[in-house]
Amino acid sequence: MAGDSYQDTLFTPSADASRHTRSVITSTDLSALINDSADSRQEPYAVDVDAGKNTTLYQAHSYWTKVPPQGIRPYIDHFTDPGDLVLDPFCGSGMTGIAALSESRRVVLNDLGSAATHIAYNYNTPIDPDRLELAVDKLEAEVADFFEWLYTTECTDCGETREIKNTIWSEIRECPHCGETFNLWEPAVIDEKVEERKNGFVRDEFDCPACETSLTKTDPEYRGIEVSRIEYKCTPCFGRKYGLKEPDEADRQLLEDVSDTLEETELWYPTDDFPDGYNTRQPIQKGLTSVDKFYVDRALLAMAKLWDEIQRWEEDAVREKLEFVFTAIANRTTRKHAFRPWGGAGNSATLFVPTFHREQNIWVTYSRKANDIVKAQTELYEQYPEDLDNYLRVHNGSATDMGFLPDNSVDYVFTDPPFGANINYSEMNFVWESWLGRKTDVELEAIVNSKQDKDVADYELLMRESFAEIKRVLKDDHWMTLVFNNSKAEVWNALQQSLRDAGFVIAQFATFDKQQPTLQQITSEGAVGQDVMVACLNVDDPTEIGESLTEDEIVRHVRQLLPELAEKTDRRTARGIYSSVVGFALNNRRSVDNLDFETLVETLERHFEAKTLEYERPYKDVVVEQTLWYVE
Ligand SMILES: C[S@@+](CC[C@H](N)C(=O)[O-])C[C@H]1O[C@@H](n2cnc3c(N)ncnc32)[C@H](O)[C@@H]1O
Ligand SMILES: [Zn+2]
Ligand SMILES: [Zn+2]
């Protein structure tokens, strides 16, 4: 549990004067950010927030469910004037800051997670990109020899010493029949598929190499991991393609030497035990009980070396950005990173440890990320106001208590709050926060999570306190836009009740077409689906909430809705229709307490016609199905 030391931390953008990841900044003077104009927009407003996810800026540093700045910008333009103050009380990676600052608005970013405020702060305090580039070069010079030792192998064709790019690890399994252990790769992986970069590279059934009993992937038990293949660069032999080899004696010796070095090293690395949680359960079952064990030895040693060099940096503003690059790779370099023959491994909001792991060359990964971050910083450095001190504060604390902000000081709130049990932020942020040395104070985390002993009532209470606090700091008759998504009636109900109790009126509820369903949306029913935008007005006397919708009313609404939709659109999915029904209830101030996703699907089945379409995406060989609904 975190102490009080940083919960009140208010980061000012004068990065040179602050070591924000280590100490407390007490400059709480916000007067430059606040105006006393009472003007406000009359009309609600909603557009899709999904634009701009394929930009270097957006992808420079990951976070769980990011809303792209390009999507937020139209809201800022509609609801505020230049110089106005925008607040995001659940800011995550601080995308609202980018939208606001690049439009000359002032902004306060707040989040409970210290990883979130680390990311939000660094995204929004760009330094001169030349300084960062120079620093990365200098860092490379510092670590070059060490990294050369870590990532060297012999080319199987020409025998020259070459640089290792990736190392593919496979699980060791124990045969339930003969008790022998074996490297799963050998009997289970289809090497041609790996070479052709295709999916379906693991056999459904294979024989135990010792006793030849037929096994499936789940039969033999986990007994650790071992290197299976090494990808390295040898331009004379393979051109731009990587060479792929089985580890030889020297490769195995190197890994042993690395492990010995790690055992004796004086370099610091985090050894924090994972908390008992939802996402941590699977890694803990595999024996990965702490953050250090989440990395293979070589990756951990390389990360520890980098972190050590970064911590020695003298200029704080530069050191912070080098740390920012570091945290941007700190998850994808763990054993959570799956090996997939076609490349990347996605970045799902889980800590799931896969059977096959691709260990990346840490310097290759770091320097690539540094390039992206330099590009992102260049873009912002040019757009941002020069006197950033008068425009930005980043605060690490709970939205339930924003005492650092005076009453009636904020012109507009744009925020994407946690949605019930969808994502366990404090668990997902644990690796980052262990390196940063500051953990989220989970007691105030707004979430439904039985491991934290929190049910929907606890979530509702935290949301109500947050909305009450937002109401206090937001000027009268001013707006708050919420990005929200959930398929559970009880969570919608918690949102509806807590908004009303705090003194907000839901003025508009909007959903948007998503052209292409993402793999996550289609494959896992519990996954986050379509975003909905809820416009809330801060009023004196919010109206009462009426009875819940009857099945008849729901059917009538859907009968009206479907003919208005395009023939193929994901608004015709059960999920899209669900959002529409919830919106219908909220817009009409009717209770949403009976609107569960499962219940709606049953209603659809009784009254409407389903057609199933097949899509081939996003990877070769992966066909996904999508069910759309029509009036019979
Ligand atoms: C949906 S995310 C925001 C993501 C953000 N829109 C982005 O683009 O990165 C919700 C955030 O709420 C934070 N959170 C949870 N409980 C909180 C609380 N009581 N006060 C402030 N933030 C909280 C989580 O740490 C998480 O970062
Ligand atoms: Zn070669
Ligand atoms: Zn066997």
From TrEMBL:
Molecular functions per Gene Ontology: DNA binding; N-methyltransferase activity
Gene3D superfamilies from the UniProt entry: Vaccinia Virus protein VP39
Ranges for domain DNA methylase N-4/N-6: 61-119, 410-522
One of the GO biological process terms: methylation
Domain of life from the UniProt record: Archaea
InterPro entries: DNA_methylase_N4/N6, DNA_methylase_N6_adenine_CS, N4/N6-MTase_EcoPI_Mod-like, SAM-dependent_MTases_sf
Pfam families (alphabetical): N6_N4_Mtase (PF01555)
Keywords: Methyltransferase, S-adenosyl-L-methionine, Transferase
UniProt similarity note: Belongs to the N(4)/N(6)-methyltransferase family.
Protein's name in the database: DNA methylase
Lineage: Archaea, Methanobacteriati, Methanobacteriota, Stenosarchaea group, Halobacteria
